[in-house]
Amino acid sequence: MVHTDEKKELWLLLLLALISFYLPLSLAPLFDLDEGAFSEATREMLTGHDYITTYLNGALRFDKPILIYWLQLLSVKLFGLNEFALRLPSAVAGTLWTAATYLFVRRFLGRDVAFYAALFMLSALQINLIAKAAIADGLLNLFIALTMFSIYLFYQNRAKKYLYATFLFMALGFLTKGPVAILIPFVVSGLFFTIQKAFRLWLKTVFHPVGILLFALVALPWYLLEYQAQGMAFIDGFFFKHNLHRFDTSMERHGGGWYYYIVVMLIGLLPFTPAAVKGLASLKQMLRDDLTRYLLLWFGFVFLFFSLSGTKLPHYVIYGYTPLFIFGAMAMHAGIAKRWLIWPVVIFLTILLFFPEIALFLKPHIRDHLAQVLIDHVYDGFGKNYRVILFIAIAAILSTLSSEFSRRATLIVIAFAFSLAINYALLPSYGKLMQQPVKEAALLAKKEHYPVHMYKVNMPSFNLYYEGLVSKEKPKSGDIVFTKVTSLKDLGSYDTLYRKNAFALVRIK
Fold first, then answer.
1. What is the DSSP string of 205-227?
2. Which run of H or E residues covers position 59?
């Protein structure tokens, strides 16, 4: 039976999920490159009626397995081809991920810690980004978390239902993003069971015939059908290029030093980074407990593995964030000074408040010409509404310095204020500056039935809004070209059909 106070907490978390994950789904155009690529591949699946192989601008796309495309396709058929529908599967996945974490933590650490863990998740900067992005990672994080929870539950009571759940969720993760959904549970559980002197149990678990059969029935049919359709091109493109080579090489210039993910976490875990840091600081105490030892292995492996990887992207470390939310919640429950909760997020939001001025100040030191053009137009995106929302968020958080606010009330205010600032100020403003011109140019080209050449720019969201394929061949006289304004000089004489911020649609004379 749910206690009255817990009902209030659950309604509060549901409201925060609505504010963070659902209401903002349509507030910004799709962001390139990733959102545009996934969404356009889904659109081409819709029009091409090929539900096994994905394509991007008519070319084979082997970046990710099929599950996220199927879910986006279902959403589009229900709600139409728009940002809301394409992002909705990630929002649902983020909600289920939060709910699963709440239930798991409540079972082992109590209601208060579960509430703080969910509050942390729903307001964290990177989760607010990933749970609204029309990409595979929100869904993958859900399945990784469910797999890891099931493994620990099986270790605790040896119930077969948790063993089968482990293989089921791992199979769904494998259908979402491939081998990483197997690698993390396999290595972490192997280390944990070995430390717990249960290596034989681990071997029996890993090679359980019913579990393997369940995994194969769920995960393998699509892989076999895709191999049947595309042969070795699929093996080379998916397994070698987009999995193995991501570890040993820096793909698409996505590299970084050993400190890369430390910086990412310090920012990505806001507004409650101090709580996560404090939780991690008590390592000796955590190693004495089975659950925290397991969670520490989970986070530690993800952090080390992707820190050693040649390709580094900010969202990779999120696969190990669930333990950090729990460690941070434990620190909140144990007690943390209000000033450590308030001032880091106030400083961050103040930097965002003056972002246009900071960008203009730094412009002379930036070499990227496209970035310089965007900075010249920064006030077109980051206008009055942006400032007002950020000012209100900062004022609300500062008001909690009053002794009238308990630490718990302070946490709630910070979570809601930060979520409002990110979802209703930062993301829509950046979308208006960077992506709105792409969307508007595409809609114009669609309306006028222009055959479009895309020149020196890769913006798949253009295809999505244009609802068609574009030529990537070198444009010639008479062609209609979508490009960035810094490349217009290459086209000679042209008529401008549309131009805004950093992008233009022109007809070459």
1. HHT-HHHHHHHHHHHHHHHHHHH
2. strand 59-60
Instruction: Give which of 127, 244, 232 is closest to 180, Cα–Cα.
Output: 244
- Say yes or no: 421 and 379 in one domain: yes
CA separation, residue 434 to residues 49, 366, 391, 429, 496 (Å): 32, 17, 23, 9, 19
**483 DSSP β-pair partners:** 455, 504
- Per the rule left: phi > 0, alpha: psi between -120 and 50, beta: everything else, 498 is beta
- % pLDDT > 70, the chain: 96
Q: In this predicted structure, what is the pLDDT of residue 1? A: 56
Q: How confident is the model at residue 337 (pLDDT cuts 50, 70, 90)?
A: confident
471 and 450 in contact (C-beta within 8 Å)?
no
Based on the domain organization, do 383 and 465 belong to the same domain?
no
The model's pLDDT over 173-194, given as tens digits with 9 standing for 90+, comes to 999 999 999 999 999 999 999 9
Domain end (from 434, 463, 495) = 434
Q: Is residue 327 part of a domain?
A: no
Question: Rounded to 10 degrees, what is the CA torsion of 369, 370, 375, 377?
Answer: 120
pLDDT value, residue 348: 97
* Chain length of the chain: 509
When mean pLDDT is compared across 1-15, 87-101, 113-127, the lowest value belongs to 1-15
d(CA 123, CA 328) in angstroms, rounded, equals 13
Tokens describing residue 73: 């396709």
3-class SS at 52?
Answer: coil
pLDDT band per the 50, 70, 90 thresholds, residue 405: confident
Mean pLDDT of 29-37: 94
The DSSP H or E segment spanning 195 is helix 180-195
Domain co-membership, 428 together with 455: no
Cβ-contact 253, 313 below 8 angstroms: no
Residues 471 and 502 in one domain: yes
Please choose, from the candidates 149, 193, 162, the residue with its C-alpha nearest in 3D space to the C-alpha of residue 323: 149
Q: Which residue reads 């270790």 in tokens?
A: 155
Distance CA 12, CA 119 (A): 9
**Cα distance between the two ends of the chain:** 73
Rounded distance between C-alpha atoms, residue 133 and residue 21, angstroms: 10
Q: For residue 481, report the phi and psi dihedrals to the nearest 5 degrees.
A: -125, 130
Q: What is the pLDDT of residue 292?
A: 94
Distance of alpha carbon 153 from alpha carbon 156, whole angstroms:
5
Whole-model pTM over 0.85: yes
> What is the DSSP-derived secondary structure letter of residue 53?
S
Q: How confident is the model at residue 33 (pLDDT cuts 50, 70, 90)?
A: confident
**Domain end position, chosen among 411, 434, 457:** 434
Report yes or no on 417 lying in a domain: yes
Q: What is the DSSP letter of 467?
A: T
